[in-house]
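Box S1 | Example of a co-folding query
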Amino acid sequence: MIKFCGHGLLLDIEGTTSAVAYVYDVMFPYARRELGAYLVKHGKDDALVPVLDQIARDAGAAGYAEWTAGDERPLDRVRDEVVRLMDGDIKATGLKQLQGVIWEDGFKSGELKAHVYPDVAPAIDQWRDTGRDVRIYSSGSIHAQRLFFAHSEAGDLTPHFSGHYDTTTGPKREAASYAAILQDWGLAPGEVLFLSDVVAELDAAAEAGLATALVVRPGNAPVEPGHGHAEIASFSEITLA
Ligand SMILES: CSCCC(=O)C(=O)COP(=O)(O)O
Ligand SMILES: [Mg+2]
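Box S1 (continued) | Returned holo structure for L4RZE5RM
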């Protein structure tokens, strides 16, 4: 049980609100399977230009045009780079944006339905009833986060969240990212509790002054003792003062 008397709750997704296995065994394979067909169908759409530019910038180029100059099949370069990033589970912004748009069809058709632990929606309902502000911070793009919670096993949870942050604010293992979130949110560090399954993320948040708790869910990676963060196995273990 932990007691929190601040105003904001910042939630990680994978391993915190939802099972790691759902992301790794269902969502990532879906994106990998659909990647080639998606690029053939949408690779030349104007809407994809910012995503392709981001993938090129992540690869160290100025933009997509420079990155693929002289390529006969520029989308092959994108596909190969995206496969490389997926193989390494690299949380690059461009990859995450592309996965988000690929998942859109899956969520809208019903093939994808996001897993959410049963304690999550009731706890958030209760927090919001007491005037708390609940936001998401995930490596998944903001677009993907909204699709995920709009099409979850617990129904449409998007009205629960007042804000979303992704890697466009910064990587989750850097204190500066949490400082930027606080600045955007307009809250002091001690006003926000961050929940995650990854100690390095909690360390970064704590360095920025946030309160933290490690969420221990079935299937999460084991954690070394002595990490110094409070631990919970369910959101119901958080009491608000
Ligand atoms: C929007 S669900 C997909 C999450 C994702 O792509 C990912 O890499 C997991 O990131 P998290 O920060 O939630 O652990
Ligand atoms: Mg996580």
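The chain has a mean pLDDT of 97. Residues 135 and 163 are 5 Å apart (CA to CA).
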